[in-house]
Amino acid sequence: MSDKYDVIVIGAGPGGYVAAIKAAQLGLKTACIESWTDKEGKNRLGGTCLNVGCIPSKALLEISHKYEEASHGFADQGIIAKDVKMDIGKMMERKEGIVNQLTGGIGGLFKANGVTPIYGHGKLMANRKVEVTDKDGKTKTYEADNVIIATGSKPIQIPPAPFDGEHIVDSEGALEFTEVPKRLGVIGAGIIGLELGSVWARLGAEVTVLEAVDTFLPTIDQQIAKDALKQFQKQGLNIVLGARMTGAEVKRKLVNVTYEDAKGKQEAKFDKLIVAVGRRPYTDNLLSEDSGVQMDERGFIFVDDTCKTEAPGVWAVGDVVRGPMLAHKASEEGVMVAERIAGHKPQVNYDCIPNVVYTFPEVAWVGKTEEQLKAEGEEYNVGTFPFAANGRAMAANSATGMVKIIADAKTDRILGFHVVGPQASEIVAQGVIAMEFGSSAEDLALTCFAHPTLSESVHEAALGVAGGAIHIANRKKKK
User: Fold this and answer.
1) Reduced to 3 states, what is the DSSP secondary structure of residue 370?
2) Full-prediction pTM beyond 0.90?
């Protein structure tokens, strides 16, 4: 087989494998390079997301939530379940089974669409040549008319808490615990820290989350963030804001952590410490000096709005480029690039990318926050509706949180859609679709929603934008 392709994709995560499949569907001869191997040294497709990220973490979140509900929530509903126990080994086995099924599924999709998988570490050379080093150290060079870089990201390590793989771990290590730690520390109250902290708290760990910033989830709408924080604290998560970590030392199988907060120097002891302070682009040994691709000082690859780099015929998508580090954003960019290579002109709408925290309650949002709109001097109207007044949420024993819709005061166009509560990750899609179609709040208010459903809260929040909610008292408008 010739070593010349129309498209070579470096990386088989959600950006890369999706780009490769789309390119092949568009009639382009496509190869996808992946270096990931499992503990047994077998090649694995799917990148961080499928192997040690989105998918395994959601499996643990689902299982731990069911355990939590069976242990504490069933009795209120008349279900007597005594002595509910957790088998951590079985839970991990199930998580691995799901991961294996999905990563193997990508191999099947490559076969069905005619994508050639190439296993090894890909390095971009000049003139769109890609050098691949396999696990035995052998190198082979391929060339392409177009190269798509989709190498993703990896956890950031901080000097005060270097990973040791056993007591101080990253997000990957936190998915591999063989028993529930008695006391668990989490550095970082971002999405990953909150999700992993939630899993182990539900299973019985005493969890402390240390966050350097003074504001909880500062980038999201603060009404939603405050509601979420209240719920997490009720669940027993000890979230300490404004806590700047100064050191972590393992002594006698315990992690001794020192940090500074408003009260001064503090100390804490944990059985395990998860460092979840963010991720950085994975660009190690990726580019030769003459590749023509430019990076910024943080390792992100420079691209334009269509994900083109400064080197002709070279594109980059996902976590290695600007924008949110989200699997679905990477996939959308991958599809856009494949389509553009094939001569079409699609564009990713970066204003309509949803964000989700998969805790319980879930937190999800798309578009602008009230804080952003105030800072921009925009006039807006707000409609909110609590799940406490939603019959379906009550019936499901999940009546916490709210839906919040923000609309332009003059045009009524929806500018932001925010949810904290049950199935927020699914409900936010209604906001994404509405915003993608340029919907007004009135459009949603005039839409018929099934009863009883959680989605009726969207309907009521939309009605509330104009002060016309039915199932809750409306705020009097200021004259």
Assistant:
1) helix
2) yes
β-bridge mates for residue 272, sequence order: 184
Average pLDDT over residues 75-102: 95
**pLDDT surpassing 70 at residue 479:** no
Place of tokens 């396999």: 134
Q: Could you give the residue numbers annotated as active site? A: 451
Q: Which amino acid is at 264?
A: G
Cα–Cα dist 411/436, whole Å: 16
Annotated binding residues for NAD(+), as ranges?
A: 188-195, 211, 278
Residue 201 burial (10 A CB sphere; 0-12, 13-18, 19+): buried
Segment 186-203, tens digit of pLDDT: 999 999 999 999 999 999
Q: Which of 186, 191, 189, 202 is nearest to 236 (CA)?
A: 202
117-146 burial code (b ≥16 CB/10 A, e <16): bbbbbbbbbeebbbebeeeeeeeeebebeb
SS3 call for 63: helix
In percent, the amount of the chain with pLDDT more than 70 equals: 99
Distance CA 30, CA 13 (A): 15
Q: What is the mean pLDDT of residues 211-233?
A: 98
Q: Residue 311 above 80 pLDDT? A: yes
User: Phi, psi at residue 297, to the nearest 5°?
Assistant: -65, -15
pLDDT(50) > 90: yes
Q: What phi and psi, each to the nearest 5 degrees, are found at residue 132? A: -115, 125
Q: Which domains does the chain carry?
A: 4-155+280-350 (3.50.50.60), 168-277 (3.50.50.60), 361-465 (3.30.390.30)
